[in-house]
Amino acid sequence: MNRIKIYVPRDSAALALGADEVAAVMALQAHQRGLSIELVRNGSRGLLWLEPLVEVETPAGRMAYGPVAPEDVASLFEAGFHAGGQHPLSQGRTADIDFLRKQERLTFARMGITDPVSLADYQAHEGYAGLRRALALQPGEVVQQVLDAGLRGRGGAAFPAGIKWKTVAAAQAQQKYVVCNADEGDSGTFSDRMTMEGDPYMLIEGMTIAALATGATQGYIYVRSEYPRAIQTLNEAISKATAAGFLGNSVLGSGRAFYLEVRKGAGSYVCGEETAMLESIEGKRGVVRAKPPIPALKGLFGQPTVINNVITFASVPIILARGAVFYANYGVGRSKGTLPIQLAGNIKHGGLVEKAFGVTLRELMYGYGGGTASGRPIKAVQVGGPLGAYVPEAQWDLPMDYEGWASVGATVGHGGIVVHDDTADMSKLARYAMDFCAVESCGKCTPCRIGSTRGVEVIDRITTGDAQQRPQQVKLLRDLCDTMVNGSLCAMGGMTPFPVLSALNHYPQDFGLSNPDRKAA
User: Fold this and answer.
1) Helix and strand tally (H, E) in the chain?
2) Which region, left, alpha or beta, applies to residue 242 given φ > 0 means left and ψ of -120 to 50 means alpha?
3) Coil, helix or strand for 251?
């Protein structure tokens, strides 16, 4: 009898919704029915509203069922789901689900398809093809591929990755480092976590290629403490990759060394900033460093250091495997390639969408997200985490790219999108941004440390104080935001005004302002 291959996700989102229990009942039901099954714990496909999404391999392809609860398993077997049978939870062929079919999955091509910690699975789906090609090139040629692909940092700053690599490669030092910033602290973001839990070898391969290109021999992945499953999966994958020769003192027999370790963060949002992260890895308090010198020249332990985030490194293997031109053909303008976009908040179909730059917010929120979960009209959408601007409907049809969005005061950031319906009070959300900054500030610079505290007080006076004093308080808030933007050492204080000012500009009625002259205000 042929074994039936059934997939149940091991991603944290699926586990939170009972995936382990579903897998256990699945195994028990199969045993009781005398069926021989192979239960594969895959990563998530990113269709989070259908989790746990169970798949079964059939001659017609993988068939999807979800969301599956433990009590649904018996009826699934009775309906013959293990042969692709129809059931109320049937979603059809996984590859034909609109949410997936309309994406351009480059970085997330393997996500949900493979066993995350299986090296054999990874290599069967183009894994380590990029590293093998990199080993056949000179280090400078590898850097040039990344430059030609137009890959920019996916952590929010959008700095060209190849320029960082080129700077570190040219630096003279006995020791160089590669550091992955996996401190994914922005609200509504989970693509880093999905990558580390669902395709960890892709991150490991990208970091190894960076090390070979720049002459680094030691790497660290700095993971937030709130991601225990990601840490566990990474450590298992690193151990297996080392045993198989993909890491260690001679990568694939090349004679070139690269060692990789995971470092757990201590729960500080500001450690998402690269220099504060370096301080934390060194065992110090996570406080922002003044620049210059830049980390590419004087980074971890004072040595030249490549720092990129998870999705940046994870984008590298396919660039090397298929060539820079292939990757650069996706996207628009100077925003090349694809971006894993995360739909969260008040959204009907929350999850991950990988699209080439140029997609619009309206298409994402309605074409993929299906509108609000509440069924009410969308009022505002925050893009780029808690420090990102609120984007009004007038801008929902702008193509998503770094320069285009910057021109209207918005940021792409890490690709996190948080949707709010028409019941949202934008003055309260603006106040939350200032309060968040006050709580999370490292305290090193005055504009951030004191400005955010004063910002909360001023917003309270605008919304609950004397209406006649409101214009004066609005002017004070704008002056305060200007000081924070131009005087803060890092993006913590420098970007906190973005959500505040965008809420004030586009939703003045929520601040008790009627027909305001925005510029005069």
Assistant:
1) 21, 16
2) alpha
3) helix
441 Cα distance to chain centroid? 22
Q: Which residues contact 514 (CB under 8 A, 6 or more apart)?
A: 508
What is residue 23's three-state secondary structure? Answer: helix
| 3-state SS class at 72 | helix
The three-class DSSP label of residue 111 is coil
| Spatial separation of the C-alpha atoms in residues 364 and 245, rounded to whole Å | 41
- Whole-angstrom distance, CA of residue 157 vs CA of residue 488: 16
Within 8 A by CB and 6+ apart from 485, the residues are: 494, 495, 497
Contact 474, 482 (CB under 8 A): no
Strand, coil or helix: 496? coil
Rounded Cα–Cα distance for residues 328 and 163 (Å): 16
Q: What is the CA radius of gyration of the chain?
A: 24
Per-residue confidence in pLDDT tens, the chain, 521 aa: 578 999 999 999 999 999 999 999 999 999 999 999 999 999 999 999 999 999 999 999 999 999 999 999 999 999 999 889 999 999 999 999 999 999 999 999 999 999 999 999 999 999 999 999 999 999 999 999 999 999 998 887 788 999 999 999 999 999 999 999 999 988 889 999 999 999 999 999 999 999 999 999 999 999 999 999 999 999 999 999 999 999 999 999 999 999 999 999 988 888 888 998 999 999 998 888 988 899 999 999 999 999 999 999 999 999 999 999 999 999 999 999 999 999 999 999 999 999 999 999 999 999 999 999 999 999 999 998 888 889 999 999 999 998 888 888 888 888 999 999 999 999 999 888 888 888 888 888 888 889 889 988 888 898 888 888 888 888 988 988 889 888 888 877 888 888 899 989 999 998 888 754 444 33
Cα-Cα-Cα-Cα torsion 281, 282, 283, 286, nearest 10 degrees, comes to -70
Q: Which residues pair with 338 in a beta bridge?
A: 356
Phi and psi at residue 47, to the nearest 5°: -95, 75
Match 């934008």 to its residue by tokens.
426
Query: Structure tokens of 73?
Result: 């398993």
Task: Convert 356-412 into a string of H (helix), E (strand) and C (coil).
Answer: ECCCEHHHHHHHHCCCCCCCCCEEEEEECCCCCCEECHHHCCCECCHHHHHCCCCCC
DSSP states along 439-486:
HH--S-SHHHHHHHHHHHHHHHHHHHS-GGGHHHHHHHHHHHHHHHHH
Q: Quick one: CA torsion of 214, 403, 342, 391, rounded to 10 degrees?
A: 150
Closest CA to 431 of 473, 471, 398, 399: 473
Q: How far is CA 220 from CA 121, 156, 249, 260, in A?
A: 24, 20, 16, 6
Strand-pair partners of 386: none
